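Subject: design request, 304 residues
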């Protein structure tokens, strides 16, 4: 059973430094995921844990998955009992975090990956790639990502208490949102040609997102291969045009022609409040704020 203890140990300075006796980041895991699972055991919000570790306010350290402040990154590495260089392998480039969803809405997860982690006796890990604006499916299972709904005001993702105390099963309560997400993910894992045109459109969406992923577009670690960052800006501008598309044209978007089973609101969702912009979308940050729902982003990306 994984246990997490918080010990205060004297560092080089006169201040006390926090030591988290918890597992360091796993392959692909985001730094904010490590903070959230450590804070969950002690019922601490992400912002409170950051203050305990670094002595700084969350706003001063930058994006929690990038942590631009050098001293803050060193303090976190020390708390996790790893080197700064090791921790850096899991960090996003601070200059690229604007291409991720905002920290307070970076909630995408894969139910099938979580079920796998629980079966292995591990606490589920939120992958850094799941925070990409232009990625709405699991690269392992080729199924939709969903929004984790148990969240705090500062963006922390709260895991069920029974997971934190070592319960290894993954049996969501019937009619719970977690049970619903798992059921939908399993259904998408079985879709195929028998679903006709709807399947072809779903497959096209996966191929488009995969092409962006494989060329580094929207990646948090560095610019696209070949350094063509203008392509990312063009994508954002076109997406902004979709957001202000007149209603009659929106109704003709491919997503509305899908098989009814593909049109679940937790998978594809287009609402007037999301798409009719009262104010111009000036940059990527305003776009990701408007499209904070992964179901809304998926619905618009499916139009490409």
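Subject: RE: design request

Done. Sequence follows.
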């Amino acid at each position: 059973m994984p246990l997490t203890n918080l010990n205060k140990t004297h560092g080089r300075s006169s201040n006390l430094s926090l030591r988290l006796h918890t597992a360091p980041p796993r392959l692909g895991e985001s730094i904010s995921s490590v903070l959230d699972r450590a804070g969950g055991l002690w019922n601490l919000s992400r912002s409170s844990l950051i203050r305990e570790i670094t002595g700084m306010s969350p706003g001063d350290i930058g994006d929690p998955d990038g942590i631009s402040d050098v001293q803050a990154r060193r303090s976190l590495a020390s708390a996790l009992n790893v080197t700064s260089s090791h921790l850096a392998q899991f960090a996003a480039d601070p200059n690229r975090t604007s291409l991720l969803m905002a920290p307070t809405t970076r909630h995408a997860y894969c139910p099938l990956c979580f079920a796998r982690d629980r079966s292995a006796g591990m606490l589920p890990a939120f992958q850094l790639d799941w925070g990409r604006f232009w990625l709405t499916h699991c690269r392992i299972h080729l199924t939709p990502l969903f929004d984790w709904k148990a969240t705090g005001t500062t963006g922390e993702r709260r895991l069920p208490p029974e997971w934190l105390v070592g319960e290894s099963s993954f049996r969501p309560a019937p009619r719970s949102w977690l049970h619903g997400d798992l059921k939908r993910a399993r259904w998408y894992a079985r879709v195929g040609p028998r679903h006709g045109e709807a399947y072809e459109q779903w497959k096209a969406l996966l191929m488009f997102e995969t092409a962006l992923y494989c060329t580094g577009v929207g990646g948090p670690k560095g610019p696209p291969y070949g350094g063509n960052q203008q392509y990312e800006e063009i994508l954002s501008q076109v997406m902004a045009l979709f957001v202000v598309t007149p209603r009659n044209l929106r109704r003709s978007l491919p997503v509305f022609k899908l098989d009814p089973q593909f049109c679940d609101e937790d998978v594809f969702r287009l609402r007037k409040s999301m798409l009719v912009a009262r104010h111009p979308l000036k940059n990527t940050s305003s776009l990701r704020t408007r499209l904070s729902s992964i179901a809304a982003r998926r619905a618009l990306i499916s139009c490409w």
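The two ends are 45 Å apart (CA to CA).
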